[in-house]
Amino acid sequence: MSLAQLRDAACACHNCDLYKDATQTVFGTGPAHARVMMVGEQPGDQEDRAGEPFVGPAGKLLDRAMAEAGIDRSTVYLTNAVKHFKFTERGKRRIHKTPGRTEVVACHPWLLGELAEVEPELVVCLGAVAAKALLGPSFRVTQHRGELLDLPDATARITATVHPSAVLRAENRDEAYREFVDDLVTAWSTL
Ligand code: URA
Q: What's the gap in Å between 169 CA and the centre of ligand 1?
């Protein structure tokens, strides 16, 4: 299936219940044959409204970190392990909820489809949800951060770092940010 066909199919996906409350499916964006695919967790509030991945606060931090690491975001295929926003309502606010294994598994065909079409050389997982989706539920980003591994059943290599939201929440934000930029520099140096 082409990326356009995958996107259309994902937009009609009822594999789990998340489509019921989300505004729309947020599919991946970027060059169809990008050398690098970055995988996040799921769209956030702003992504859900815009229909584009990484346009909210985490996306802004990612943009800044990529620019500082000398990476042009437009060359990267950006997507998420889960394509619908999962949240609970608190007053007018929609609070992010981490997707569960069932939702990650339900969404997996779309991520696998994107991998098969884009055929990236390198996959960069942003955070535990993306890393577990592709490397198995027992994978720990804390233990294997920055390691270059082989992506199971594909020719790509894969590495995991923290999620940009974790940098935004970190106690020592400057240090967390520097380490995140360093991880991106190291990952791109393997190309
Ligand atoms: N966080 C993610 O993991 N993905 C997005 O698209 C936005 C925020």
A: 14
Residues 82-119 have pLDDT tens digits of 999 999 999 999 999 999 999 999 999 999 999 999 99
CA distance 102 to 46: 24
| ipTM of this predicted structure | 0.92
3-state secondary structure of 42: coil
Q: Which of 54, 96, 97 to mutate to test the pocket of ligand 1 (most atoms within 8 A of CB)?
A: 54
Cβ of 120 less than 6 Å from ligand 1? no
Tell me if the pTM is above 0.90. Answer: yes
Q: Is the CB of 113 under 6 A from ligand 1?
A: no
Task: Indicate the CATH number of 3-189 among 2.60.120.260, 3.40.470.10, 3.40.605.10, 3.20.20.140.
Answer: 3.40.470.10
70, 88, 107 from 111: Cα distances, Å: 26, 24, 7
Ligand 1 atom nearest residue 81's Cα? 3
CB 79 within 8 A of CB 28: yes
Distance, CA 29 to ligand 1 centroid (Å)? 12
pLDDT tens per residue across span 138-183: 999 999 999 999 998 878 999 999 999 999 999 999 999 999 999 9
